[in-house]
């Protein structure tokens, strides 16, 4: 018995040690980016990237935040589009997937096929762009970064449909129907509480997609006050002088360009763009192990 317990302890300890090592290894790239962002530009040019910077400097962040209002506006646009887009997109996906999971829906296989078809073929960028600009008039509006991504992926619809079909007990829906509950009441009072794991998963996918979206901003937005943080970062990475455009003195611009950190600014931009997402993961993670364990069928 003692030998068996020892073997179990060694096995469990080995598994825990492996996952701890894997977790630390996964954090190394993020730590490296952060360390480079707080290093001096000269040390990076001389010694390369290092987890232990020889010279600590916050010049990259001082350079980025010299005009904080611009970054604050970009953050505001990104947060607004991410919150609204994620909630509305998740709702549309769920309302689309749930009927497809019901066996009594007519032509549900045909509809599912057309959804799957969109994963293989698209209409092309030109008609897609013309539709949103000419028909919906989304040019230079905040909706241009929300509406095109509302149904982010047909894969999300099929994934949620499969979850509903395999997880929601048929007896629960039938009992609610007999009690006189409407379809919407069944969906919001029964289906959604039992589907928190898939809701959290698709919600996280949507959050990442909206937060990292710079392409729609590039296509539809010409006004700097409507730039989101990712597009602002992209413009800064491709043209590092973008943040200095408000300077009036050419001599001042030349002096700033001579002293401007370059490699460290790239890393600081990555930290500025990814840091808020770190708060999204704990919010969604707590729902992964809940929801389905609450149960609805008793007896």
TrEMBL record:
SUPFAM superfamilies: MetI-like. Keywords: Cell membrane, Membrane, Transmembrane, Transmembrane helix, Transport. Its main location: membrane. GO terms for cellular component: plasma membrane. It is a multi-pass membrane protein. The chain crosses the membrane at residues 12-38, 74-99, 111-130, 142-165, 186-206, 265-284. Pfam families: BPD_transp_1. It is found in: Cell membrane. Residues 75-284 form the ABC transmembrane type-1 domain. Coiled coil: none annotated. Signal peptide: none annotated. GO terms for biological process: transmembrane transport. Belongs to the binding-protein-dependent transport system permease family. PANTHER family: ABC TRANSPORTER PERMEASE PROTEIN MG189-RELATED-RELATED (PTHR43744), POLYGALACTURONAN_RHAMNOGALACTURONAN TRANSPORT SYSTEM PERMEASE PROTEIN YTCP (PTHR43744:SF9). This is Carbohydrate ABC transporter permease.
């Amino acid at each position: 018995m003692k030998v068996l317990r020892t073997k179990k302890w060694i096995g469990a300890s080995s598994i825990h040690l492996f996952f701890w090592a894997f977790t630390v290894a996964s954090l190394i790239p993020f730590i490296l980016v952060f360390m480079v962002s707080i290093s001096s530009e000269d040390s990076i040019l001389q010694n390369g990237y290092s987890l232990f910077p020889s010279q600590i400097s916050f010049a990259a962040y001082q350079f980025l935040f010299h005009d904080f209002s611009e970054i604050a506006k970009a953050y505001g646009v990104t947060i607004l589009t991410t919150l609204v887009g994620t909630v509305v997109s998740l709702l549309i996906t769920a309302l689309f997937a749930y009927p497809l999971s019901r066996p009594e829906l007519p032509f549900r296989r045909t509809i599912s096929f057309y959804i799957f078809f969109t994963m293989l073929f698209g209409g092309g960028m030109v008609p897609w762009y013309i539709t949103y600009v000419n028909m919906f008039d989304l040019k230079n509006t905040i909706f241009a970064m929300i509406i095109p991504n509302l149904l982010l992926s047909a894969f999300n619809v099929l994934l949620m449909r499969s979850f509903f079909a395999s997880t929601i007990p048929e007896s629960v829906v039938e009992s609610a129907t007999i009690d006189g509950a409407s379809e919407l009441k069944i969906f919001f009072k029964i289906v959604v509480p039992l589907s928190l794991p898939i809701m959290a998963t698709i919600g996280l996918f949507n959050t990442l997609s909206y937060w990292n979206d710079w392409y729609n901003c590039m296509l539809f937005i010409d006004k700097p006050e409507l730039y989101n943080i990712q597009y602002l970062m992209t413009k800064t990475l491709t043209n590092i002088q973008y943040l200095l455009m408000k300077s009036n003195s050419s001599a001042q611009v030349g002096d700033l360009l001579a002293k401007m950190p370059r490699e460290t600014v790239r890393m600081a931009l990555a930290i500025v763009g990814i840091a808020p997402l770190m708060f999204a993961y704990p919010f969604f993670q707590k729902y992964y192990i809940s929801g389905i364990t609450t149960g609805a069928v008793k007896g």
